[in-house]
């Protein structure tokens, strides 16, 4: 059974994230709220998800991202059995011009 993450504190955090208006503002906020390792771990998982969606093998992903097979497997499980959050974001990013911040 998963923990209920829908709390007032999480809502407040998400409202803060939604208020950010540029990539530079994201850097400013996330460098304050996350450790470097936390931010790199999040970005690594997102890159793993992108590569899995592009049909890369676990070996290719591990070599290119440094992610463990356990991390790759967890991300793959989220892609296949999660809430479709990755796919929602990937679809929106495909509609956005690449240079847009």
From TrEMBL:
This is TrpR-related protein YerC/YecD. It comes from Anaerocolumna aminovalerica. GO terms for molecular function: DNA-binding transcription factor activity; sequence-specific DNA binding. Pfam families: Trp_repressor (PF01371). InterPro entries: Trp_repress (IPR000831), Trp_repressor/repl_initiator (IPR010921), TrpR-like_sf (IPR038116), YecD_YerC (IPR013368).
